[in-house]
Amino acid sequence: MSDRPDEKHTRPDGVSDETVEALGKLSEALEAVEEARGHLYAFHRRCGTADLMLGDAVDQLRNAGHGDLADRLADDLVGRNIVEGRWSFQVVEDYDATYYAAFKEHEQAARDELVGGRKHLFEAEMKEDRRTHGRRHHEARPDA
User: What does residue 133 show for φ and ψ, rounded to 5 degrees?
Assistant: First the structure.
């Protein structure tokens, strides 16, 4: 079997270096958006955890005889919106629907239009340039 990249990681005929580089940069931008989305989900989880912990603290304060303080915290903070009108899950949903989905659609459309939908061409070419051909653990693909 040939020690060459598979077709899905090989540039189609007639595609320029500039196009591969531009699509690589677009892919890199999408990766940054994906990373930001991950941080947003972590933020969402931390907000929920904080609210549940706050509820526990309120209960403990009430049990310790600090009912007025517990009531103030419960009334003002427990279940409070993190931004106007929204809990963190709503922020995540808005991000996904407004920005993330559109970014993914445009990135996919660019790849479909310019390289038949192929992914990671820039990285695949970098791998070909950097690996030691014929050496163990430097194979072009898993089945090579």
Answer: -60, 135
- The answer to whether the CB of 1 falls within 8 A of the CB of 143 is yes
Contacts of 5 (CB under 8 A, 6+ apart): 124, 127, 128, 140, 141
DSSP per residue over 68-122, as a string? HHHHHHHHHTTT--SBTTB-HHHHHHHHIIIIIHHHHHHHHHHHHHHHTT---HH
Length of the chain: 144
Under the banding of pLDDT at 50, 70 and 90, the label for residue 1 is: low
DSSP state, 19? Answer: H
Looking at residue 11, its amino acid is R
Token readout for 70 is: 């517990």
Q: What is the DSSP string of 2-54?
A: --S--GGGSPPTT--HHHHHHHHHHHHHHHHHHHHHHHHHHHHHHHHHHHHHH
- Report the distance separating Cα 106 and Cα 113, nearest Å: 10
Torsion angles phi and psi, residue 40, rounded to 5 = -65, -40
Q: What whole-number distance in Å separates Cα of residue 49 and Cα of residue 9?
A: 42
Instruction: For residue range 73-109, list pLDDT tens digits in order.
Output: 999 999 999 999 999 999 999 999 999 999 999 999 9
pTM (two decimals)? 0.85
